Amino acid sequence: MSAHRHHDPVLMRAPLYSPEPDEILSDEAISNPQQLYARLRQDAPLARIHASGVHTVANWSLIEEVLKREADFSANLTGVLYRGPDGQPQCFELPSSRANEVIATADDPQHAVHRSILQPAFLASQIKAMEPLLRRWTTATLQPLLDAGSGDFAAVAEQVPARAVAHLLGLPQEDLPQHRVWAMMGGDILAGQITSERLEFLANETANMSAYLGKHLDDALAHIDDSDTAPILHTLARAVVSGEVDREQALGMAVILFGAGGESTAALIGSMLNRLAQAPDMADQIREKPELAPLFVEEVIRLEPPFKFHYRSVRRPCSLGGYELVPGDRLMLLWASANRDPERFSDPDVLRLDRKHSRQHLGFGRGLHFCIGAGLARLEARIVLEELLADGRQPGCIAGQPPVYARSIFVRRLQHLPLELT
After folding, report:
1. Taking residues 39-54, what's their average pLDDT?
2. How far apart, in whole angstroms, are the C-alpha atoms of residue 101 and residue 297?
3. 386 falls in which pLDDT band (50, 70, 90)?
4. pLDDT tens digit string along 95-120?
5. Which of 97, 33, 36 is nearest to 271 (CA)?
6. For residue 397, with 0-12 CB atoms within 10 Å meaning exposed, 13-18 middle and 19 or more buried, which class applies?
7. What is the pLDDT of residue 339?
8. Which residues contact 110 (CB under 8 A, 6 or more apart)?
9. Among the residues of 279-308, which ranges form H helices?
10. Which of 165, 208, 354, 361 could form an S-S bond across to 261 if both were Cys, CB 3.0 to 4.6 Å?
11. Stated pTM of the model
12. How many CA atoms lie within 13 A of 336 on its CB side?
């Protein structure tokens, strides 16, 4: 890559990073994105991708600036980067929809309304009350793998979060197989490259999920549970009745929670187990000092954020990092890059259990759009870690069976994680 910084005080368009404008969509960037991110931080913290109108933002300081400038940069998801028919990066324009502009992709004041509706379900006391249930699900899901001594641990990473998000929404647990499929496809539209066959599958399953959630939302509207511990679908039903949101927005919030709450936590758990398998000394340290478990989880979140970036769209002509931006431009805020910025972290590429302020990273976003389910994700990951380590054996990689990442520039999720216990 030969992109360079511009030092002239006159504003200019952000530099193209080259010589391979599609590098961000490459298999190498999916399996090992940190090499690309390091070059971007060094050579072009703000870089325009080919002629797509999408710009990567790679260092901590610029991302922090963007998050403080909501008047300039909107969270609305209006377009996504993908590989066009000519093989080059392009921006796929998304149709405007009230159902798409909810919670994570809404701006204030709408975002504040959505967050206030959902926040009670994610209070620390509510999440803590789920711990016994999460442990039962975790032990039940782990047991076949523990009995066999090996297997694909992606099943654990996917099933526990799918159960948790269904429980929060108030959906029947017997529908787990379908919930698991839907929970793992939330990031597909942002993956950067998707086959026509997968796109057709995604369209059909999204329609099925919307119909399913819509039915359960309508059931809640017909028989609203007004208790403080009512499932989220009933909370959304109350918000519809009160006029805070309409049915389309309520359904959009349920869809977002299903995908974000399932896939992001599955990504975190998979990355955590993969890290553990590659560092047997970590397992021994945590067994000796169980209080290190949350610190280990936090370092995995920093080093391997479940979502590698989120988009912002440019609202009005403005500048960032000495370059001009125009309405219609999009920014990719590279959380995964900023979390390894040497200007922010010492030994940024090293998993350390002695970091001070261990939660001061961008693994769950930052500011107004900080992940509402962060506490639940941390709890699920810690429980999986504790229950696996309680077995006493060391998880390790299986020779000839490497982990397989989802083919996505957006989510850092292992689709297959073959491990053996020794």
Report:
1. 92
2. 31
3. very high
4. 877 767 899 899 999 999 999 999 99
5. 33
6. middle
7. 98
8. 101, 102
9. 280-288, 293-303
10. 165
11. 0.93
12. 24
